[in-house]
């Protein structure tokens, strides 16, 4: 496994590998890897000749009052895990390498971002789309891997790939969970002990939505109210949003129909957690 | 020569050619080709295994009161000229093919566009940067060719390639001129007969700037006044802008130093013409 920090070296390496007809699977991350990332790396390993992991805590996707500096980091552990999983390259540029000065161009999202995290975190998805445009051109992968915990990110990336015609296949991996249902997340380390046990109720609440829908409930408002009640009564967190939308277009729905996302963000003292469930209504 | 209109076919063709290690030279245009385009196609022909010409009048780079519908078109003549010059592919998508619906993402320029055409044509360079991002991913060229008549466009493309790490070399071709000095432009056909002869004074005025600088004049204000006077006294056109800036960063200058652009836009009855001259001051 090679660790590369310079953009020009990474791009040269990838162009050389492409010229030898190697297929490239790419897992972009902000590091502090957990089982969710590991499952994406395994999937990438199985489906490609070469696997590239990027580790870059992207300042552009953090708001001024967000946890950029506090975002957890452990490069040595990430390195070890990546190697165990058969990763070929880690691309780990510095912020100065990625943003050496004021940019001439950025990507601006114009759909799918007025709701959910896009609403609570203005500019977040512009930052995501900008850094991915850069990374896609540096790594030039055949397949890119994202976890469905960040379902809105997956929807935005789908739009980015389609609109800009990146010849890259998007592979969305299922959310990996703790035994009690909590979605794995790098930010889970910042939960206080009581918050950690409460946090399992986010997924329990989402499962209630699934059960209500399976039992024939079609009203988004009724399901939303029930889900909110479970979270409110069982956690000390603040609900940042709880929305029921079409997926992947993320449009409002009154009556459940087709592919639907039930998505929640809950703010605890030092961690804001997100989770979601996708329902397909006949 | 093949004419391709579908994005998916163009991209498939290019990926196939790239897999055979062919180098690709790309000349993006809005069609109605003139000698300026021809010189870029010749350059591309000399420097690459394959030459791709795109012809697409990009609605995104026209403002609401601009000449999108009136922009001159002659596909048959373009086709013939391209074939004579040894072009391998013409990519000529429809507007619906390039913009099938509301976009999810666009490129936004954040530098080099508050002056010159960027100031007179708000959103113009966002449209240019967006369509080029799309075209670069469809065509995946090794080299891309632009004419220096559109010097600000060259500066914006340089920023786009650098910031988004497109592994593409930018080749800027010298402005091709009529015998009297008028820069070749698709829009010249819209000049009235008297305007056509007056229009030569734009370049004469720019040459005066060059002569003044060569004679030791360092004051941007003095040169600007002299150039404006020549245009004003010899044409019926309205000066849209006349600016003296650093190149390619396009920043204001008081005293001439380093690489400098003197750029003008003049509005005639049915055509707005631009031209520029680059000076290198010791």
From TrEMBL, chains A, B:
Keyword Transcription part of the UniProt annotation: no
Predominant location category: cytoplasm
A biological process term (GO) from this entry: pantothenate biosynthetic process
EC code: 6.3.2.1
EC top class, as a word: ligase
Pfam family of the protein (one): Pantoate_ligase
Family according to the record: Belongs to the pantothenate synthetase family.
Cross-referenced PANTHER family: CYTIDYLATE KINASE/PANTOATE-BETA-ALANINE LIGASE, PANTOATE--BETA-ALANINE LIGASE
Protein name, per record: Pantothenate synthetase
Phylogenetic classification of the source organism: Bacteria, Bacillati, Bacillota, Bacilli, Bacillales
Gene that specifies this protein: panC
């Amino acid at each position: 496994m090679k660790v590369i920090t310079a953009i020009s070296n990474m791009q040269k390496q990838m162009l050389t590998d492409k010229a030898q007809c190697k297929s490239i699977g790419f897992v972009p991350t902000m590091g502090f890897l957990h089982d969710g990332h590991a499952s994406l790396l395994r999937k990438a390993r199985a489906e490609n000749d070469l696997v590239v992991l990027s580790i870059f805590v992207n300042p552009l996707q953090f708001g001024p009052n967000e946890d950029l500096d506090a975002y957890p980091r452990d490069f040595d552990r990430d390195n070890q895990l990546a190697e165990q999983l058969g990763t070929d390259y880690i691309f780990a540029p510095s912020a100065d390498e990625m943003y050496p000065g004021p940019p001439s161009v950025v990507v601006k999202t114009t759909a799918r971002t007025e709701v959910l995290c896009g609403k609570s975190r203005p500019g977040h998805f512009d930052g995501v789309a900008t850094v991915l445009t850069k990374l896609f051109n540096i790594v030039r992968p055949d397949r890119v891997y994202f976890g469905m915990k960040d379902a809105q990110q997956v929807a935005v990336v789908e739009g980015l790939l389609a609109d800009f015609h990146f010849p890259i296949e998007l592979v969305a991996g299922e959310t990996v969970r703790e035994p009690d249902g909590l979605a794995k997340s790098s930010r889970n380390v910042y939960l206080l002990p009581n918050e950690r046990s409460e946090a399992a109720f986010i997924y329990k609440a989402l499962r209630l939505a699934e059960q209500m829908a399976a039992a024939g409930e079609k009203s988004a408002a009724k399901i939303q109210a029930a889900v909110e009640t479970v979270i409110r009564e069982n956690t000390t967190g603040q609900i940042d949003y709880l929305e029921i939308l079409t997926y992947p277009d993320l449009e409002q729905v009154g009556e459940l129909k087709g592919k639907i996302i039930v998505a929640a963000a809950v703010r605890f003292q030092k961690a804001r957690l997100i989770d979601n469930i996708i329902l397909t209504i006949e």
